[in-house]
Design a protein that fits this description.
With about 190 residues, the chain is an alpha/beta fold. It is built from 5 helices and 8 strands. It has one domain.
Length: about 190
């Protein structure tokens, strides 16, 4: 399946989990998705950390990506993500991206696929997607990780954003100077 290929090629980073859904038809993944890989760091071919990632990505895929949720630090990274992965998008893929420096919620159509873009300086894409979809923790009660992604995907399929539609070229200009705050030990 596609996500196993991504794992083998180093496109999955900081993996939370990668597992088959209960029926085995799809793979479920939570972790970072590499957008721009790191450079080769030594003579053995080990790479440095990625330069750009889709943070805390939530992916449901079979041979194509059916659901893609995650966070981007800058709108300028969206075209890079699309260039790298657009060929793997299912025709009816559902996507929601939380972007740190985006000024207002918008939708972008790319090859017939609607990408919902929402500003978010701090927060976790999974939690923010739950809020946007009006889901509760109880919606996932007693579910395994892969089942939770299937539940979110079912809700995302019925979701309709009320945000205005823009072209990709327009969307990358709707930015400000917001940056993600760094947390943790100093």
């Amino acid at each position: 399946m596609l996500l196993n290929t991504y794992k083998e090629t180093g496109n999955l980073f900081y993996m939370n989990f990668l597992e088959a859904t209960p029926g085995g038809e799809q793979m479920a993944y939570r972790g970072d998705l590499v957008v721009v890989p790191g450079e080769v760091g030594d003579e053995k071919g080990h790479t440095k950390p990625p330069k750009t990632v889709l943070r805390e990505a939530v992916i449901l895929a079979d041979e194509k990506i059916n659901m893609l949720i995650g966070g981007l630090d800058k709108m300028e990274y969206l075209p890079m993500l699309l260039e790298k992965y657009k060929g793997d998008f299912a025709a009816d893929m559902k996507a929601m991206f939380f972007v740190v420096n985006l000024t207002n919620p918008i939708q972008v159509e790319v090859d017939g696929i609607s990408l919902v873009l929402i500003p978010l300086v701090q927060g976790v894409p999974w939690n923010e997607a739950m809020e946007e979809l009006r889901m509760e923790k109880s919606d996932f009660k007693k579910q395994k990780p892969g089942e939770k992604l299937e539940t979110m995907f079912a809700e995302l399929k019925t979701y309709s954003s009320k945000s205005p539609v823009a072209t990709l070229e327009e969307a990358v200009t709707f930015t400000n100077n917001a940056v993600r705050e760094i947390h943790g030990a100093v």
